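Notes from hallway chat w/ T.B., transcribed later so I don't forget. T.B. wanted the structure written out for a chain they're using in a teaching module, and asked if we could keep both sequence and structure tokens in one place. Agreed to drop them here.
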Amino acid sequence: MKLRTVILGTQRKAEIFTHLLLDNDIFQFSGYYDPDSEMNADGAGNLLYAYELAEKADVFIIDRHVHFIDTSLLENLTRLGKHILIDGFLIHDSGFAEQLIRLNAESGNCFHVANTLYNKPLYTTASQFVRKPRFIKLEKECRPPAPGGFEQWLFKELSQDLDLVIRTAQCGMRNVSARPLFLFGKNPDLLNIHIEFDNDSVCHISAGRAIEPRTHRLKIYQQDKLFTLDFTENILNEYRQTENKDQLTFLEENEAQQQQELTLIQRPVIPFDAWKMEFRNFEENITKSLTPLTSLEDVLQVNKLASLITEKVQRRYHEV
């Protein structure tokens, strides 16, 4: 069975996706359509031929660099049971995500969210070892938001990280607080987010240009262990106590303290091509009616948290 596949994106991105599709017999490339092209929009910015486009394929792949996401097109494709692979967290509206979830449940199509940190080798490897985290700390260096652009900035820079935090905690959120810091000018240079979960675990996020350059690091503390995920260098380290703290010792205090220092274990990251794995999973999700690793429900959770953070920041800092 061949599934006609259309790429929504530029010609260059269509060429890249077409090359990735070669490893999967199920997908048959049927062309690309660039929603950002002036040729494909009317004077009001509405996408032309949206309904005609749905007849051209069974599968639609949406590139993350597309600026204009036509909500009516996505609704129509989902309603008609078309299979959709979307590159990252491109849906920012909770209400729209909920609408797609309802349509998805009715039509039974596969709506696969690809190319997220959660699906990539570093976190996939770490998830095999992490159990019941108590404290999660994320640090990320990124550009500051432009005036009036905080909400867009938050989604672009932190949506994948928020997704990681939510799914690492595996628990509902009890309280969320957020505060920007203005260190070098009128734009916030650092955003601090504090999340308390229902199981009493805690997460702290620091993001902005007031972080050491190239830093993108997640620390996960659990009982007697610490995991550090360096996304810049693709390194996973585990730290554990050298000696059981409940073991009786008759050594001097300083000697006992030295013996209980943390031992470093460098965990090898499972090597695999993330995009090839995405399309392999996408194919299995379609043929076997499986739930994607990252689904619309995960998108909705990120949207709700991001909206809550935005509301708390803009309520106190109107200039952001």
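Follow-up for T.B.: The mean pLDDT is 89. Might be a good example for the class.
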